[in-house]
């Protein structure tokens, strides 16, 4: 009997103007609150719709400045009609022909489905249980993965399975493999883990999880370092370091190319491929190596030493992995590194990064306030670039940072070339 009454009610309300729009609003309100309550406004309802609703409620909605209907009011009015005994939720569900779940119920259902999704993966890859449990957490760093879950759960499942499989193929400690070759071996696709793809980003995210160091994944060079720490090389030919006055050794002994370069005053551009073969690196003379950011400064300094090049390295801008690995080898010999870079936000961040890499053996070279002023800073910095100074935190760079923030101008190491030359001379003569 109730079933027939509900069917009659649905037929009635579908035939009356205004109720469809009202029912949509009441459904939305019920889903939001999780109960019969709240009020819906009749904004935008036509004259005819308000007339039909007014006849049902026995009131004139035209006289109200902000006409509205509460869900309780509708339920009470329904009890005064021939449809008494029909719960409002039952009426709405039959009207729309679907079960109406509240937002809270939907969230709980979604939560359980997501939990089941990750539990199934953990069951398939028990050795990565800790990783998958971490990814399942709604932490900020996992947000892009959870967005992917909501957009295409099946695709995310495939990606996570591929990445979990890839972990089983990582090179053994001390061995290296190029990213494209690694990708081909794991998934028969050399571009499977290209870093601009979603799968490549998840791969990096996973390596970060297993890493002992926190890398900035927005930095190309730190990404390269992260990959290298797991034996993966992104680029080992175009990733190079420029040097002079440096001797190196492999497992076979002194490297003849470096030795010949020192003997003939020759500059070397050494790709990462060759750096990886080295076991030792040290200055041809003394215990100090000078490092500069710009190739022009590097070459100009060498011009001033025509008879014997000093131990000098050029990073060619942002640190490449080849530069960092060569510097690390030199530090392992107990040598001191003196680094000079540009006086701009990016240059200060580079100096900070290198200093933090090794506090004991790396010295910031002419990074005092007087050096910044001596560089005759004239190039105006945009507000966006000045904002980057916020990440410069080491005490040694604060005077330059504050002055740069004040005048918003950049200076460059070409202007202090004479100072750099004089320092190198002092070390060579000592």
Can you lay out the helices and strands and say which pair or pack?
Layout: H1 2-14, H2 19-33, E1 39-41, H3 47-57, E2 68-70, H4 71-78, H5 88-96, H6 103-124, H7 129-136, H8 143-151, H9 153-167, E3 177-178, H10 179-187, H11 198-210, H12 220-229, E4 232-233, E5 240-244, E6 246-250, E7 253-254, H13 256-263, E8 268-271, H14 272-275, E9 280-283, E10 288-292, H15 295-303, E11 312-314, H16 321-332, E12 336-340, H17 345-357, E13 362-364, H18 369-374, E14 379-380, H19 383-387, H20 398-407, E15 409-410, H21 417-429
Parallel strand pairs: 3-4, 10-11, 10-12, 12-13
Antiparallel strand pairs: 1-2, 5-8, 5-11, 6-7, 6-9, 14-15
Pfam families: DUF2399 (PF09664), DUF3323 (PF11796)
Domain Conserved hypothetical protein CHP02679 N terminus: 37-246
Protein name: TIGR02679 family protein
Task: Estimate the global geometry from the Cα principal axes.
Answer: elongated
Query: How many E strands?
Result: 15
| Unreliable residue runs | none
Using the CA coordinates, give the radius of gyration. Answer: 34 Å
InterPro entries: CHP02679, CHP02679_N, DUF2399, Spo11/TopoVI_A_sf
Protein name: TIGR02679 family protein
């Amino acid at each position: 009997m109730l079933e027939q009454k509900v069917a009659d009610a649905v037929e009635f309300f579908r035939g009356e103007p205004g109720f469809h729009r009202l029912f949509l609003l009441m459904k939305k309100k019920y889903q939001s609150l999780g109960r019969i309550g709240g009020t819906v406004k009749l904004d935008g309802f036509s004259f005819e719709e308000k007339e039909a609703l007014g006849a049902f409620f026995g009131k004139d909605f035209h006289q109200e400045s902000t006409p509205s209907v509460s869900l309780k009011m509708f339920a009470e009015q329904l009890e005064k009609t021939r449809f008494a005994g029909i719960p409002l939720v039952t009426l709405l569900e039959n009207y729309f022909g679907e079960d109406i779940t509240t937002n809270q119920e939907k969230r709980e259902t979604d939560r359980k489905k997501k939990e089941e999704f990750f539990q199934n993966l953990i069951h398939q890859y028990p050795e990565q249980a800790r990783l998958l449990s971490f990814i399942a957490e709604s932490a900020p760093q996992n947000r892009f993965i959870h967005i992917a879950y909501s957009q295409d759960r099946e695709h995310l499942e495939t990606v996570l399975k591929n990445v979990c499989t890839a972990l089983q193929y990582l090179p053994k400690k001390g061995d290296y493999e190029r990213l494209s070759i690694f990708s081909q071996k794991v998934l028969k696709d050399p571009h499977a883990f290209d870093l601009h793809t979603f799968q490549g980003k998840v791969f990096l995210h996973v390596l970060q999880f297993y890493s002992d160091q926190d890398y900035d994944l927005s930095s190309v060079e730190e990404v390269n370092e992260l990959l290298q720490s797991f034996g993966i090389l992104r680029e080992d030919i175009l990733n190079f370091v420029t040097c002079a006055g440096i001797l190196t050794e492999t497992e076979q002994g002194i490297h003849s190319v470096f030795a010949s370069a020192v003997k003939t005053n020759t500059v070397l551009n050494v790709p990462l491929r060759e750096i990886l073969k080295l076991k030792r690196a040290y200055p041809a003379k003394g215990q100090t190596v000078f490092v500069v950011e710009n190739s022009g400064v590097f070459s100009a300094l060498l011009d001033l030493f025509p008879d014997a090049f000093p131990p000098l390295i050029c990073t060619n801008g942002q640190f490449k992995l080849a530069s960092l690995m060569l510097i690390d080898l030199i530090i392992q010999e107990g040598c001191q590194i003196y680094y000079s870079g540009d006086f701009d936000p990016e240059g200060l961040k580079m100096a900070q990064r290198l200093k933090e890499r090794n506090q004991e053996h790396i010295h910031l070279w002419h990074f005092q306030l007087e050096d910044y002023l001596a560089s005759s800073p004239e190039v105006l910095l945009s507000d966006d670039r000045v904002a980057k100074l916020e990440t410069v935190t080491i005490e040694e760079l604060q005077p330059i940072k504050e002055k740069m923030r004040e005048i918003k101008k950049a200076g460059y190491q070409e202007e202090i070339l004479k100072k750099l030359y004089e320092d190198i001379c002092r070390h060579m003569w000592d």
